[in-house]
Amino acid sequence: MSPGIRALVWDENGAHVPRAVYPQGIRGALAGALAQSGRFQLEPAHLDEPEQGLPPARLDAAEVLLWWGHRRHAELADGRVAELVARVHAGRLGLLALHSGHHSKPFRQALGASGDLGGGWDEDGGPEQVRVCAPWHPVAEGVQDFELAAEELYAAPFHVPPPEAVIVQSFFPRHGKGFPSGLVWRAAEGRVAYLRFGHESCPSLHHPMVQRLIANAAAWAAGAQRRQ
Ligand code: ZN
Asked: How would you classify the pairing of strands 146-148 and 153-154?
């Protein structure tokens, strides 16, 4: 059996993440999603560690970086971002940003975009209906349409470059608004993926379809399917 995909699972170590929803924090939930698939070697990391959890040796050892931040984006040192994005663009490190990671420095700089939510947002988004749009894509493998009971609304347009594929699209019936919740891009020689799920007060990261999307997107961003 081949060794697992080396995934660095980073979050901002946010004190506001409710432990009742995510007892191990967001990075713990993301690591749990990857562990379900049995395809990964996991390395958890966070902002309050030495070198902000991203020392060069750790980045060199990883094939994909999962990124969740919300309130602490500005604390990430610009030099570190440049180092990280250079690895992404060189195809040495895939990037998977989740939820509020749309406004993180690595995601914005990797895509050269603002990542702004043109249609706004609302923490009280109500139910979220998720439809698979690209069943042919490896990130959609094993994913069926699903519904989350309550999520934060993000509303289109999403200010990012045109993606290679829209994997899933969300509709929030209470608001009558939609958002492309699963996107993948080629960025220079590298790969970048985005999944909208993961608002800290909603348990979406425990949902089996969301977990499947996370594992598939991480594997795709790592370029892992090229080795199969
Ligand atoms: Zn949120």
From this structure: unpaired
